[in-house]
Amino acid sequence: MATPIAFNDTLIPFNEFILSESIRPKKVSYGVNSIINDEKILYLKALNHYITFMKYKDELYLVALDKNNEFSFGALKNNRYTTEDGIDIEAIINDISDNPKNIGAPAIKVFSGILYIMLEMVKKYKLNHFFFSSANDKLSPVYDKLIKNKYFIEDLKTQDISFKNKKDTEYYFTKTNKNTKEK
Fold first, then answer.
1. Which of 21, 84, 90, 112 is most deeply packed, by most CB within 10 A?
2. Are 15 and 22 in contact, with CB atoms under 8 Å apart?
């Protein structure tokens, strides 16, 4: 169990705190083939989501984008989803966890990779805005700190992205470059 520390008058695990202090997008392999490296993104018409995956060590993570430009991400509870043909989508639909306790790898490395994939999807689909929501009450203070972190802000600026605002547990970002469009 991670050692808790005081943060905004609450105790949170140290790994969540450190995530808020030093998270930066980091290039990772992603995709939908069996070794998660083809850099492909699938469109699931039935769910109206674009999805892709990343792997860190033996753990598998989903990154999804819906029609409203909301990103969601989560750890898969086990690693039985890859087949010789790629990812078994049906096997994962009801087996995704957004609980940080289910992240079997260092949270900083995982979220850094997820951020990288999100920014790649912003570029690919030329989004002029996007957002993500805090999955639980413990992550909201972490994301609140993250959006004020100067290194995170600088990294976003290199992508012509800025944090716009927070509404409840949703964090909104905009693309400042004029060569963008609605998805």
1. 112
2. no
Neighbours of 151 (CB within 10 A): 12
Has residue 68 been placed in a domain? yes
Q: Is residue 1 part of a domain?
A: no
> What tokens does 125 get?
């689909």
Convert the pLDDT of each residue in 26-64 to its tens digit.
Answer: 899 999 887 889 999 989 887 788 999 998 877 888 899
Query: pTM of this prediction?
Result: 0.76
Q: Bridge partners of 30?
A: 54
97: how many CB neighbours lie within 10 A of its CB? 15
Domain-located, residue 86: yes
d(CA 26, CA 58): 18
Determine the number of helices (DSSP H) and then strands (DSSP E) in the chain: 5, 13
Find the domain containing 114 and state its range.
Answer: 13-175
Number of domains observed in the structure of the chain: 1
Under DSSP, is residue 160 helix (H, G, I), strand (E, B) or coil? coil
Q: Does the residue 180 lie in any domain?
A: no
